[in-house]
Queue: 4 jobs
Job 1
Amino acid sequence: MSHDYDYLIIGGGMVADAAAKGIREKDADGTIGIIGEESTAPFPRPALSKKLWTDPDFTEDDAALGTADETGATLHLGARADTIDREAKTITTSTGQSYGYGRLLIATGGHPRQIAGLAPSARVIYYRTLEHYHRLRAATADHPHVAVVGGGYIGTEIAAALVQNGSSVTLVHPDDVLGSRTFPDVVAREVDTMFTDAGVTVHGGAKVEGGSTTPAGVRLDLSDGTTVLADLAVIGLGIEPAGVLARRSGLDTSSDGGIVVDEHLTTADPDVLAAGDVAEYPDHILGRRRVEHVDNANEMGAAAGRILAGSDEVYDHTPMFYSDLFDAWYEAVGTLDASLRTEVVDKPDGGKVVYYVGDDEVVGVLLWKVGDGVEPAKKVLAAHTIPDSFDDLI
Ligand code: NDP
C-alpha cells in the first residue's frame, strides 16, 4: 500500500518533532508523515539520562512531545526506511511499505557503537531510546550492580542517575581521570571526585575489549587485563551517524558518514534535506561540523521544517550543549578538547570559564557552573581571535 505525503520525515526522534512543528509554522494543511525505526513516538532524549531519574515528580507524560496531536503528523513507527528513489520521490521501508513525498527530511540520527562480541540483550543495553529507559528501570528496581561503560555523556549521566537511585555502579572509562579528554585537569579532578564521593567505583585507564552474558549477569573483559562482573551493563561509546540511506541514494556523505547539507540544510537534491545528529552543516561561527546535542536537534529540526515548507532562511544557530552531574552542571559551545591549550578563569561560587585555544583562535568555551554565559561565549568564538586577556570576557 502506498501513502503520499507533502512532507515526509525519515527518523522518529526529536528532530522529527521539531521539524513537524516547524512545518506547521509555515503550512497549516500540508500532510506530514514520520517514519520512525523506534517503536515509540518522538521523545525528549535528555530526560532519559537526567530528569526521569533525578526528579521523582517528573513523569514520562510530563516529558511527552505531543508530535502527532499538535501537528496532525501520521507516525509510522517500528519501520526503517531502506531505500529512497529520488527520481520517483518515494521511499520504501523494512516493513514493505512505500511512501511518496513532495519534500523529504532525513533525520536518522545515529546508532550506538557496539563492542565486538557483546550483543545487545536483556543484560547489555547500548543506551539511547525510551525503550532502553523502560528496560533499565525494570532491571534496576532491585538495585543491582551495574557496569556502566564509557566516560562521555551517557556513561557519566547514567552512572550518576543509577547511583542516586540505589544501584551499585562501576564506571569503566579509558582516561586516567574521568572527563580528562574534555575538561582541563582542575575540572576533570572535580568530576572524578564527585563520582567516587557518590559511591561509584570509577575504573579508569581501561577500554572494554569484549565480554559475554551469562545466566547470572555480564562479564566485561578490559584492556588492562582485568574483568568486571555485574548484573547488567549500560554502554555509551558514542554513535555512528546513520547516513547510509542517503549515501545509497547518491547523496554526499562526509568521511564519518554524516550527510552533507548547505546553509539551508539542503542536500544536492533540492527536495531532500537533512538535520540533527546526522547532518554535516556549515555552522556560521564554528565552520562545517556535525553536532550531536539537543539544542541542535531542536533548532535545526525547526528550521528544516520551515525550509521544507518554503522558508528561504539560513540556519545560523550555533548550538550550545549542557550536562547535569549530581549538583554540578555545565553549558558549553564549540570544541571541548583538553589536548588544546586551555585558559581557566575562576568565577565566584566555584564556577569556572574555560577557553580552549587553537592555533589562532578560541575554538570552545566551557561554562562550568556559570550561568548566562552562552551568548557571550558565542561572541568570543565569533571573533576568531585569541584575546590578549581572558579575565573579563564572560
Ligand atoms: P560520547 O562520545 O560522549 O562518549 C563515549 C565514551 O566512550 C568516551 O568516553 C570514550 O572514550 C568511551 N569509549 C569508547 N570506546 C570505549 C571502550 N571500548 N570501553 C570504554 N570506554 C570507551 O558518547 P555517548 O555514548 O556518551 O553519547 C552518545 C550520544 O548521545 C552522543 O551523540 C552524545 O552527544 C549524546 N548525548 C548527549 C547528552 C548531552 O548533551 N548532555 C547526554 C546523553 C547523550 P574516548 O573518548 O577516550 O574514546
Job 2
Amino acid sequence: MDSVVILGTGLAGYTLAREFRKLDKETPLVLITADDGRNYSKPMLSTGFAKGKDADGLAMQTPEQMAEQLNARILTKTQVASIDRSEKVVRLEDGSTESYGKLVLALGAEPVKPSLSGDAVDRVLSVNDLEDYHAFRSCLPEGGRVAILGAGLIGCEFANDLVAGGYQVEVVGASKHVMPGLLPSSAASAVQEALTLLGVSFHLNSVGTSVNQGANGLEVGLAGGDSSSAVQADVVLSAIGLRPRIALAKDAGLATETGICVNRTLATSDPDIYALGDCAEVEGLVQLYVMPLMACARSLAKTLAGEANEVSYGAMPVTVKTPACPVVVAPPLENGGQWQTEEVEGGLRITCTRENDLLGYVLTGTATSERISLNKRLPAIMP
Ligand code: FAD
C-alpha cells in the first residue's frame, strides 16, 4: 500500500496526522522531521519564562509516544534534501530515500536573518522551535539582559514574557510604533505603555546594525532614532519576521510565491503533493497562525482519506499574548472601511465598519472580553 509521507512534525504535521488517523487507521504513515520530533505547542514558546518552564516542561510527548499514538513511523533529526517527483521519493541527507504515494509538506517558516556586522553576529539567536528555546534559555543568566531585535507581535510577546520572568529587556524596532501593520497607533501605544510600566525599554525608529563582544557583554549598535546609544545585553534575540520555507518545493519544480502555492484542496501544482501550515500559501493567502493550519489539517485529512475536500476559513482573530495589555485583533480583509476608536474603562474598542458591516477590529485591555460577540459579526476570510 502506498504511504502517506508528511515532512514536518510541528503543529501542522502532527495535527494532520492525528486528523488522518481518525479517518484512516491502515494506510502506512511516515513523518520526517529535521528536529527532535517532540510534540509541543509553538505559541507556548513566548509564554515559557513567566511560567518558569524550560524546553522539557513545554514538550508534551516524545516522538516514540507520538509514533505509537499515530500508528506511524517517525524519522527524527532527519533533514530532507530533495524531492524526486518522477520516482515519487524524498531523498534524505544521508542519501537514502523514502517513497510516497501522497506527500505532504508541513515545513513551517524560517526566521528572517537580520543584516548585521560585528564579531558576535553568530551569537544572535532566534526562537522558532523547542530546540531554539532550549538554546536561548541555556545561555541566559538568571535575571540577565536581553536585547530583542524587532518590535512586532513575537518581539512584544517575548518582551512581556521575559520581563515577567525577571529579566531585563530592551526592544529595538524599526517603525515608530510596536506591531506596525497589525495595530493602529492608539492600540500600539497602549501595549508599549503597559510594557514600559513593567520595565521594558524601547528603541523605536531604530535598527540594530552590529553586534560585538564588549567588556560588559554584547553590544548592539543602532542606526536611526536612537543611534547615539548602543544596547548592552547578555543575549540578543532576533524577532524580525518569519518567511515560509519554500526551497524544497521550489527546487522540486513546484509552484511557489511567498509560500508553496496550493489550491483549496491543499494540493500543490503536483496533484500527489500537498502543503499546509506556515510553509503554504492557500489561494494566495499566507497565514502564519494556528487557526488556519487546524482548518487545513481537518480538510486535508479527509482528502487523503479519499473524500476530496476544500478548506474554508471563518473569521480568525489573532490573540496577542502580552498580558500587560491583552490584545485581540481581526485585521480587515479589505481597505476602505471607517475606523472608530472608543475608550472603555481599562481598554480600547477600535472597529472598522462599512455601513453596518463590521470589517475588522482591535480590542485592548478589558475590551478584549467583547471579542466573542464581535467575532459573530466578522466576515469569513475564505468562505
Ligand atoms: P513548524 O512548527 O515550524 O514545523 C516545521 C517542521 O518542518 C519542523 O518539524 C521542522 O523540523 C520540519 N522541517 C523543516 N524543513 C525540513 C527539512 N528539510 N527536512 C525535514 N524536516 C524539515 N500562532 C497563533 O495562532 N497564536 C499564537 O499565539 C502564536 N504564538 C507564536 C509564538 C511564537 C514564539 C512563534 C514563533 C509563533 C507563534 N505562532 C502563533 C505561530 C504558530 O506557532 C505557527 O503558525 C505554527 O506553529 C506553525 O506550525 P508548522 O507546523 O506549520 O511549522
Job 3
Amino acid sequence: GSGGGGGGKGFEVPRVEVRFTKLFINGNFVDAVSGKTFETRDPRTGEVIANIAEGDKADVDLAVKAAREAFDNGPWPRMTGYERGRILHKFADLIDQHVEELAMLDTVDAGKLFLVGKVRDIPGAAHLLRYYAGAADKIHGETLKMAQRMHGYTLKEPVGVVGHIVPWNYPTTMFFFKVSPALAAGCAVVVKPAEQTPLSALFYAHLAKEAGVPDGVLNVVTGFGPTAGAAVASHMDVDKLSFTGSTEVGRLVMKAAAESNLKSVSLELGGKSPIVVFDDADLDMAVNLVNFATYTNKGEICVAGTRIYVQEGIYDAFVKKAAELAKKSVVGDPFNPRVNQGPQVDKDQYEKVLKYIDIGKREGATLVTGGKPCGDKGYYIEPTIFTDVKDGMAIAQDEIFGPVMALMKFKTVEEVIQKANNTRYGLAAGIVTKNIDIANTVSRSIRAGAIWINCYFAFDPDAPFGGYKMSGFGKDMGMDGLEKYLQTKTVVTPLYNTPW
Ligand code: TXE
C-alpha cells in the first residue's frame, strides 16, 4: 500500500458544498434549542467540514411531538398504501437525481470511496426504497380459522412513532435500511444519525419533503449518542427503537427502553465473522473473496470477514497470495478512482485499529504485511494480515472494525465448525468450497444470520439481514424488515346464522 494521498495525482478533488446543517423537525430545518453546534470532520485531513446543529433532549422532545402528531392525526398512516408507495417512489427518483452530490457528502464525512458510493451505496438506497414502496400496498393480515363460531381476522397496523439510531460506517445505507420499511408501513420516524456522519441524512430529509412526505413523518435530529441518542431510546412516546451500532451501546438502549415505556427494540450490533476456505477451493478466487470481505470500506463493516480459516492443504499458498494482494492495495484519497482504500472514519477508530494491531503483535501473532499508519495526514492504515492467530486472542475475538485480517489453519470440517462458532457474535459467515455436501453441512452448523457460499456481502433488498447471538436481533431488509414496523391486531365477532 502506498501512503495517504497515494495512487498518484491526475484526479480532481471536488469542492463539496454542504447545504443542510440544521435539525429537520416537522418539515423545517431549525437550530437546536440550545443554539449549540458541533463540528463534523473530514477523515482525509482531520479538518472541519461544517458545523452542525447539536440536538439534545429538548430537540428530541420536539421531534417526537411532531412525529406523534403526524402519526396520531396526520394523513400518512391513513392514506392508502398505494399513495404512500407513490410518494416513496418519488423520493427514490429524487435520490437518483442527486447521486453525485450525495456520494460526495458520504465521502468527505466518512472517508468512503466516491465511485463506490456513486454506483453502489446511493443507487442501492434508492433501490431499497423502491422495494418497500412496492410493498406498501401489499400489507395485509389473515382470516383466522377459529375453533368457535367466530369470525376472526388480523390487521397489520403500523407500530407508531419509531426511533432510528444509526452508525457512521454506511451513512446512506443504514439510513434507508431503517427508514424505508418504517415509512412504507405508515410509521412516523425520528432519526439520530451518527455524530461522525450527519451530512447525507439531512439531505435525505430535504428530498423526502420535496417528494411529498408530510411534515412530521420524517424528522432528523443530529447530535451525540449519550445526549440525543439516549433521549430517543428513553422517550415515553417512541413506540419502537431500531438501533445499529456497538454491542455496548445496544445494551444501553435496550436498558433505556426497558426502563421507560418498554418500547420494542431491534438491534444490529457488532460481528467477527468467519470465512472458511476448504482445500478444494480455487485459490485465486478464494484469496480475492477474502481480500474483498476483509478490506471493503476499510474494514468498517459489521459483517466484514475477519477470522479466516484456511484448510491445511492450501494454507501456505493462501497466505503468500493474500499478502501479495494486500500489498497491491492503493490506500489514499477516496476521490481518486485508482484508490481502493480510504481513511478510517475518525481519530478514535483509527487509534482503536492501531491499538489492536499492537495487541496482536504482543499476543504473539505473526504480522505478515501492513500494520502501520500511512500518509502524512488523515486516518489511513495499511491493509494488515496476521497469521499464527489463536482462537483465544483478542484479535480473533474482538471486533476491530478496520483493515485487519486474522488467518488460521484447520484440518477437518468438524474442527472448523467448532472454531467458527467460537465467538460471542453471529452476524455472518463465508464458505469457500466446490463440495456441495461440505457447503450444506457448514452453512447449517454455523450460528449466524447470513451465510455466503462462494460469495460475500451478498446483500439484496429481498434478503433479510440481521444477527444471531450478541450480534443482536430483528432483521433489516426483506419482508422481515417490514414486519418489525407492523403490529398485529386480532379482530373477532360472533357468527350466528351463517351456514359455516
Ligand atoms: O459506536 P456507537 P462507535 C462498532 C465498531 C466500532 C465500535 C464503536 O466495532 O469500532 O462499535 O463505534 C449512538 N444512547 N460499530 O462508538 O457509539 C451514536 O451516536 C443512544 C459496529 O461509533 O454504538 C451513533 O449514532 N445512542 C456498527 C450510534 O449510537 C447512542 C457500526 C452508533 O455508535 C449512545 C458502528 C447512547 N448512550 C460501530 N451512545 C455496526 N453494527 O455496523 C452512542 N449512541
Job 4
Amino acid sequence: MTDTLVFYSKPDPFELWRDALSPLLGDSVRIERADEVTDPDTVRYALVWMPPEGFFARFPNLELVINLGAGVDRLVARNDLPDVPVTRLSDPEMARMMAGFVLFSVLRHSRDIPHFEAAQVRREWAYRHPRAATEISVAVLGLGELGALAATEIARQGYQTHGWATGPKDLPGVTVHHGDEALAPLLSMADIVVCMLPLTPGTRGRLDAATFAAMKPGAAFVNVSRGEVVDEAAMIAALGSGHLSGATLDVFASEPLSPESPLWTLPGVLITPHLASVALPASAAPQIAANILAIRKGLPLANSVSRVRGY
Ligand code: NDP
C-alpha cells in the first residue's frame, strides 16, 4: 500500500524537499503538497512548518508529524495537533549555520563594529583599541542542539564562555550554569548575552525588566531564538537608557517587525528578518526519511519533541 507524506510550508520550496526525500523513501511513500493531496485517507505523515488552522483535521489517519524546523513552539501550542508522535529537525548543517550567525553577532559586539559603523556615517576615523577575546565573557542561554554548538564555537575563539540550561552539561570550554537562581549572577558578569532558549510556557517573557536590569551595564544582547522569550518593551527600555550598549536581533514578538518599532533606529541595534538558520533539504532529508521508515516498522523515533516540556 502507498502511504502519503503531506508537505506544508510557506517559506520552504516543496520541489527541493520532494526531490531530496523521494530517493530515500522509495515508491511506498508518495510525497504531495497539501493543496494537491489526492486521497487524504492515505496521509500518514505530515512534514510541516506553521500549517494553517484546521490543517490536521483533513487527515484522519496521521501517524507522525514532523516539524520542518528546530523550534516547535507554534506547533505544540496548537489545540488541533493530533495525538501522534511529533519530531523536529536536528540537523548538523542547521546547527552550523546558526553557530556561524551567533559567532558573527558575538564578533560584531566584541570588535565594536556598531561604533565603527556609526563613525563611518560621520566620516570619522574613530580608533578604539581592540579587546582580546580572552577578556570578554559571553553567556549563552539555552544549550540545546543549536545552543551547545554555538557555545563551543564561541569558546574555540577564546572568549570566556558560559552557558545556562535546566541541568548540568559537559561542553568543552564552556562553564555551564543551571537553574533559575544561577541566571542573575551569570548575567551580571557577561559582556555579551546570547538568547538560544526555546519558547515554552516556562520561558515566555522570561527575559523581563528584572533580567535586563541584572545584566552588566554596557552589555550587548543577541536574540536568535524566539521574540516572545523576551519582554520587548523592557529590552527597548534597556537599550534606550544605554544600560545595554547594543543588540543583534533576528527574532521578534511580532514578525515582520513593525516599521513603527523603535528598535529600527536604536543605536547599536542590528535587525535581521528571522534567518539565523534554516532547514536544508540535503542534510535534513535523511533524518526525516529515517523517522518515516522507523514508524512504519514500529521502531523508536529520533528527535522526538516532548509536548510536556514544550521543546
Ligand atoms: P533545544 O530544544 O535543543 O534546547 C533548548 C535548550 O534550552 C536546552 O539546553 C534546555 O535545557 C534549555 N532550556 C529550556 N527551558 C529552559 C529553562 N526554563 N531554563 C533554562 N534553560 C532552559 O533548542 P535548540 O538549541 O535546537 O534551538 C533553540 C531555539 O532556536 C529553538 O527553540 C528555536 O526557537 C530557535 N531557532 C531559531 C532559528 C532562527 O533562524 N532564528 C532557527 C532555528 C531555531 P536542557 O538542555 O537542560 O533541557
